[in-house]
């Protein structure tokens, strides 16, 4: 295998592993990510680890600080609001188009992801819950057949889902409420009611914004107490 191709392949594996860890909340906002520790943890050399971090940086899951390395970003309330307001419109559009265009197989796939997410909730498996929630949203967008919409939502979700564990830690009932809202969206899509699907998706995302802001405030309050 060509050396460059091999590095790219290993980098992709490292990226996938780190992506899941970050979205699962295993790294906290503001935390520094040390390349040496990652090489030991992943069992690979620094070159593919650095490439994986660059990939994560392009998705704004980490930021690069010159001469210091990489760290998990800390959003402002305005940045979160900007993300969620745009995502609400795009997720609403995706839900509306999915109601119009999704096949019966697509709808069944959405149901399976939602069932798996709820199983994770019962098992208190936050990672399974989060991954299946993401799969639900990705599949909903894919049902539209609009690849630009899929790509745009993927970038937005990456920036937002980074802070999901903050929201869930503040409002313990949030995962269950998320599932309920997803069920409502799915019913609308199954009934081919585009307007209701769009409205349900927008309500879901803006409700998530409220909880995300609460989580961010709690994070800053805790950081202030620790520094005092």
Describe the SSE topology.
Layout: H1 3-23, E1 32-33, H2 35-42, H3 46-58, E2 63-65, E3 69-71, H4 77-101, H5 104-122, H6 126-142, H7 147-161, H8 164-170, H9 174-190, H10 194-227
Antiparallel strand pairs: 1-3, 2-3
Helix pairs in contact: 1-3, 4-6, 4-7, 4-9, 4-10, 5-6, 5-9, 6-7, 8-10, 9-10
Brief synopsis:
The protein has 228 residues and is mainly alpha-helical.
Task: Describe the protein in words.
The chain has 228 residues and is mainly alpha-helical. It folds into two domains: 69 residues, Arc Repressor Mutant, subunit A, CATH 1.10.10; 151 residues, Four Helix Bundle (Hemerythrin (Met), subunit A) (Up-down Bundle), CATH 1.20.120.530. It is 77% helix and 4% strand. It is built from ten helices and three strands; from the N terminus they run H-E-H-H-E-E-H-H-H-H-H-H-H. It has a three-stranded antiparallel β-sheet. Helix 1 crosses helix 3, helix 4 runs antiparallel to helix 7 and helix 4 packs parallel to helix 9. The radius of gyration is 18 Å and the shape is globular. The chain starts with a helix and ends with a helix. The N terminus is likely disordered.
Overall pLDDT metric:
87
What structural category arises from helix and sheet content?
A: mainly alpha
Radius of gyration, CA atoms, in whole angstroms: 18 Å
Arrangement of strands in the largest sheet: 1-3-2
CATH top level of the largest domain is Mainly Alpha
Uncertain ranges: 1-5
Amino-to-carboxy terminus distance: 54 Å
Q: How many strand units?
A: 3
Element-by-element helix/strand order: HEHHEEHHHHHHH
* Total count of domains: 2
What's the number of helices?
Answer: 10
Amount of helix = over 70%
Q: What CATH architecture of the largest domain would you give?
A: Up-down Bundle
**CATH fold-type name of the largest domain:** Four Helix Bundle (Hemerythrin (Met), subunit A)
Tell me, what's the shape? globular
Biggest pleated-sheet summary: 3 strands, antiparallel
Approximate strand percentage = under 5%
């Amino acid at each position: 295998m060509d050396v460059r191709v091999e590095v790219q392949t290993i980098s992709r594996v490292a990226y996938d592993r780190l992506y899941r860890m970050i979205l699962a909340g295993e790294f906290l906002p503001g935390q520094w990510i040390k390349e040496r520790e990652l090489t030991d943890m992943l069992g690979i050399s620094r070159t593919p680890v650095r490439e994986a971090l660059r990939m994560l940086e392009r998705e704004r899951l980490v930021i690069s600080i010159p001469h210091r390395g990489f760290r998990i970003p800390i959003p402002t309330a305005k940045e979160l609001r900007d993300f969620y307001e745009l995502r609400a419109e795009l997720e609403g559009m995706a839900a509306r188009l999915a109601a119009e265009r999704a096949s019966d197989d697509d709808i069944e796939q959405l149901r399976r992801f939602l069932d798996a997410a709820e199983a994770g909730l019962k098992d208190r498996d936050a990672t399974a819950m989060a991954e299946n929630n993401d799969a639900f949203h990705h599949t909903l967008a894919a049902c539209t057949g609009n690849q630009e919409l899929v790509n745009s939502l993927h970038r937005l979700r990456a920036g937002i889902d980074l802070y999901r564990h903050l929201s869930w830690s503040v409002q313990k009932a949030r995962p269950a409420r998320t599932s309920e809202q997803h069920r409502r969206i799915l019913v609308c899509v199954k009934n081919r009611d585009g307007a209701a699907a769009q409205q349900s998706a927008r309500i879901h995302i803006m409700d998530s914004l409220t909880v995300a802001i609460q989580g961010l405030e709690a994070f800053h309050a805790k950081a202030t107490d620790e520094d005092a």
